[in-house]
Amino acid sequence: MTHSEALPQIAALDALDRAHLIHPVAPWRMHEARGPNILTGAQGIWLTDGRGHQLLDAFAGLWCVNVGYGQESVVQAAAEQMRKLPYATGYFHFSSEPAIRLADKLVQITPASLQHVYLTLGGSESIDAAVRFIVQYYNAIGKPGKKHFIALERGYHGSSSTGAGLTALPVFHRGFDLPLPTQHYIPSPNPYRAANPGDDQAIIDASVAALKAKVAELGADSVAAFFCEPIQGSGGVIVPPQGWLKAMREAARALDILFVVDEVITGFGRTGPMFACDAEGVDPDLMTVAKGLTSGYVPMGATLMSDKVYAAIADGAPKGAPIGHGATYSAHPVSAAVALEVLRLYEEGVLVNGQSVAPVFAQGLDDLMAHPLVGDSRHRGLLGALELVSNKASKAGFDAALDLPGRMAATSYRNGIVFRAFGDNILGFAPALTFTESDFGLMFERLKRTLDDVLAAPEVRAAL
Ligand code: PMP
C-alpha cells in the first residue's frame, strides 16, 4: 500500500485515537483537539509517520531504543521464544530458561554488589518493587521506623502510585495527592545553575551536606533510602560533576541508609560504560533498570539488590511464607529472550560504537552554544541537552506564553527530526548507540535549522 492510499485509513485512526485512546503524560483535552502523530514504521534511526513523513529519531523513542530500529536478530529471538514457550509464570517455583539466563547475565554485568534480580515490565514497576522490598527489608531487620525516602528535586522515578512521589516534577504530583508524607527531596546537582558554576567540588559538597541535613532533620532512625538517577533525565538532563555519584554513595553508607541508583535511562551504554555506576566504581544496594534492557522492542525492567538486602527479606518472612510481591508478567520469557539478544548486540559492538561516536555528539551540541538561543550544552556519552535562554549572561528563560518548547517540537517535526522539548526550554537528546558520524551530521543540520526557524519568529527575536 502506498502512503497516499494509506491516508484515509490514517484519518480514521486519527478520529478513533481522539475518541478513545488515553495518552500518557498528555493534556487530554488538548490532545482531542490536536490529534495524534501516528507512527507507522521505523528502520535504523528513522521513523515514518502516517503521511509518509520521515523523521530522524534523535531520542531513541523515549530514550530506550539504544540498538536502533529494525534489528532482525531481536525480532527472531522474540519469534522463536513465542513459538517455543510464549508464556511461563515466575510465580511460586516456576521458571524459564530465558529468565534464568537473563538474571545471571545481569548479575555479571552490573556492579558486583548486586547479586539478585527481580524482573519487571518497566521502570515504574521496578521502582515500585524497590520501594516495597526496602519496606520489607527494614521490617525484617527490626528497624520498622526507617520508612522515609529521600530523592532529588527534578528527579524522575516513574509514575506508579508511590514512585510518582519520588519523582519530583510537579505535573506528576498535581491532583494525585503526592508526595506522600514519607517522601522528601534535596536540591539537584545542577552545574549550569549552581551558585559557583565550574566549582565541581562545591556542587558535590552541597549535595552531600543536603543529604546529611535532610537525614538529621527526619532523624537517622527514620530514613530508609536515598534514590537518585546518575544523570537526571526527565528533569532536564542534569549532568552532575564526575565524582558526584560516588560521593553520594559514601554519604549514604555513612548515614546508614540504602543507596538506590535508578539507571533506567543511564543503563546499557547510554552514558558510555554499560552502567553509569561503572564510571565511578559505585556499588549500590539496589539498582533499577528498564528501557535499554530490551531497547524498547518489548516491555521489561529489573530491580537488582545486594545479598544483604535479599537475605534479610528472605529470612525475615515466616518459614515457608511467600513474599507477596509479583505480577502475571514478572520474568516474562519473551521479554527475557529479547533482552538477552539486545545485551548480545551491545557486547558485540553497539556499546563500542556508542562510545566512539560520543565525541561527535558532544562537539555537535557544544558548537550550538554559538546559537543566539542556546545558553548551555551538557552531555555524557550519548545523553545530552541544550538549554535555551533569553539572556546568556543572566541565564533567564522565556515567558511561558511564548511556548518555546511547543514551537521547538512543532518546528522540529516539520524539519524531520524528533527530540524532547521539555517544559522549561530544555531540549533533550538520546540518539541510538548505532548512530554514525554522518547520522550526526544530518541530525545537527536539522537541529540547527529548527533553532534558526524558531528564532526567525519576530516575537522570539524580541524576547532576546
Ligand atoms: N526511572 C527513570 C530514571 C526514568 O527515566 C523512567 C522513565 N522515563 C522511569 C523510571 C519509569 O520507567 P517506565 O516509563 O518504564 O515506567
UniProtKB/TrEMBL annotation:
Keywords: Aminotransferase, Pyridoxal phosphate, Transferase. It comes from the Bacteria. InterPro entries: Aminotrans_3, Aminotrans_3_PPA_site, PyrdxlP-dep_Trfase, PyrdxlP-dep_Trfase_major, PyrdxlP-dep_Trfase_small. Its cofactor is pyridoxal 5'-phosphate. Gene3D superfamilies: Aspartate Aminotransferase, domain 1, Type I PLP-dependent aspartate aminotransferase-like (Major domain). The keyword Ion transport does not apply. GO terms for cellular component: cytosol. The keyword Transferase applies. GO terms for molecular function: pyridoxal phosphate binding; transaminase activity. Coiled coil: none annotated. Belongs to the class-III pyridoxal-phosphate-dependent aminotransferase family. This is Adenosylmethionine-8-amino-7-oxononanoate aminotransferase. It comes from Acidovorax soli.
